[in-house]
């Protein structure tokens, strides 16, 4: 699991840096703190810093940076907010990190067509704040306030995926700078097209290995007439998971269903100071629609939950109460880390067909109990996706090995159930071996695509696949 760090030709890197300095001036940094910041993400992976960080401000500037790096055969790593979870921003072979955080303009909002176009550095919260008075919103909400470019690059999703889908379904088109510096637009604004290869889908989820995303056009949705959130505790994980499965199979259009095991719920209660809740297996629900439609959904879900032992529904209908509830859910990772100050988190995820969800979660929980490891579980279980955070001592090889064994077993279990090694975190360099186990011969096709678009292997090398 992982990739070896190999330094490219230092003379070539020095030449590229000199040219980039002439282009960017103070927006090229080699300050040690800046390099370290750009060599790590939110994962347990060690810092692997680039040789320099280029702060781009436009698509044309990214193109100019790429052309310089390509001419000197210098690796390039795109960087948005640094919140990836599988080592996606690590400079495994040195090179230049291209930071797009200053590309943070919302370029157009088309209210009649319910779409918008933004620069890659715009974050999800920034976009929704801008949309607040339009009656529209963008629903994809990973735990971090990630950039839209990074979300597209990792095919991210979040708590709303069960109702609104993932980035794969919600990206309409991209502006991409290719490995040789060309600027391409992957699609027009129309909601559908049968013209040519689907380049948008090719670059969504490519993690910067095929090109650098500089602009993203996404779908928007109308703010629902009625929104209601609820929390329901269960006596055991089996009851909680089975109520999710029956809710989905019954066709109830719930907007969010999130599962927290007793460990994660206890952590969230303490970290976010939630009052009136118990550290038990818990489901967080949210319902969107008309007033009558939401009332009907609520009654159906309450009946299903009751059949599986769900009790003590707590409602949050006021905006501030809902915000507090979902903020606590989004901070689950940091809540997990707070259980063991000084420890590091190894977050991981899998996704399985929903009919296999209960089996996969229960077997995983048995493994955790037998290992004695601290590994809270949380999931977007409405679409079969769940996460663990192995909370480990970063200086303990024994704990790291234990976590690796647990993770291997969980991923292979998911693959045996026709699931995937990652529902939304991406592959990075942490899950490359699992991708081979999952995709088999299809990896050779991925390799051919990579070599066709990036023959010198300069775009985020060492990620997704080995060449």
From TrEMBL:
InterPro entries tied to this protein: FAD-bd_oxidored_4_C (IPR004113), FAD-bd_PCMH (IPR016166), FAD-bd_PCMH-like_sf (IPR036318), FAD-bd_PCMH_sub2 (IPR016169), FAD-linked_Oxase-like_C (IPR016164), Oxid_FAD_bind_N (IPR006094), Vanillyl_alc_oxidase_C-sub2 (IPR016171)
Keyword Metal-binding listed: no
Annotated FAD-binding PCMH-type domain residues: 46-223
Keywords: FAD, Flavoprotein, Oxidoreductase, Transit peptide
GO biological process: lactate catabolic process
EC numbers for this chain: 1.1.2.4
Cofactor(s) this protein requires: FAD
GO MF annotations in UniProt: D-lactate dehydrogenase (cytochrome) activity; D-lactate dehydrogenase (NAD+) activity; FAD binding
Cross-referenced Gene3D superfamilies: 3.30.465.10, 3.30.70.2740, Vanillyl-alcohol Oxidase, Chain A, domain 4
Superkingdom: Bacteria
A family per Pfam: FAD-oxidase_C
Top-tier EC class: oxidoreductase
Family note: Belongs to the FAD-binding oxidoreductase/transferase type 4 family.
Protein name (record): D-lactate dehydrogenase (cytochrome)
Source organism of this protein record: Oceanibaculum indicum
